[in-house]
Amino acid sequence: MPTRSETNEKAATLRALFEAQGAAVVEPPILQPAGTLLDLYGEDIRARAYVTSDALRGEQMLRPDFTVPVVQMHMAHGAEPARYTYAGEVFRRQEQDPERANEYMQVGYEVFDRTDPAAADAEVFALIGEALAGVRVEAVTGDIGILMAAVQGLETTAARKAALMRHIWRPRRFRALLERYAGRSEVPPTRAALLAGQAKSDAPLIGMRSEAEIAARIEALRADAEAEPISAQRVDLIEALLEVRETMPNALSRLHDLAVDMPEIGTAVARVAEREAALAARGVATESLLFETSYGRTSMEYYDGFVFGFRVEGRPDLPEVATGGRYDALTLRLGDGAEIPAVGGVMRPGLMLELEAAQ
User: Which sequence spans correspond to the domains of the chain?
Assistant: First the structure.
């Protein structure tokens, strides 16, 4: 295991690479206001982060990553275009996998530039790939925007689309909802009784919901039950979309085929093609670069387009050495009406040192 000083030295070297590209060094505080992250991700974030309370500042969170505070900083007073880099500890609960570190060093590079999004995507990916030269990793890319476009193009209710969009990052729940909305799954007896008005209980109310909120939820369930099912053909197309896992040229060929029957994904697929050209112009071997439509769906929920990762070859038990992606919508949410296309990536210098020592 590398020492803290060795990891810090590696982090400084990586950060210097990004500084050489014109990136400004930023150092967001370790303690972050919990409210912003809870607003973005809901209570789910509590299971992944360390939360504490301050009498004056309210709930605070040990920094789970750098992207959100960097976006907040940029949207408040950043110039345009802008590039940032940073190095510091992040903190994540690892209750599902106690073998993984809950505190580790992270180095990142963020680009805010509306000139050429495809070129910015390629810039971030290629620079991180170059920094990983000599480490045995496998690169994988994806694009969350394709699935988002497919959901938005469904002929169904706004409520159903909103639910599917909310659970894009929870693959099992997403698939279960899709099956339910298509009428492919059986209605549980308890829900059937509830919808039929046959569910009765004299038990007192427990929890924070009022009777009015419960009644509104029941009405929403009834409205959903009366809605027309999503067509079987459309569900099959989405499932075929999620199964795309090919080298980038072959994946694009398959995506273009699917776009014939799903024209709503055409613009997102065109962005993938533009990105491939930009990556090739940066010297990336796109003919062997893996593309998975489903990649990134269990990561932090601010990505809404290009996503990528560098996985350790033959070690699925290890976390990815580097990850990143595009988060345009996050800048709008944190920008009080302003927005700017943005993409970034992060690396784990400690893991890099471990892998380099093992080779």
Answer: 154-231
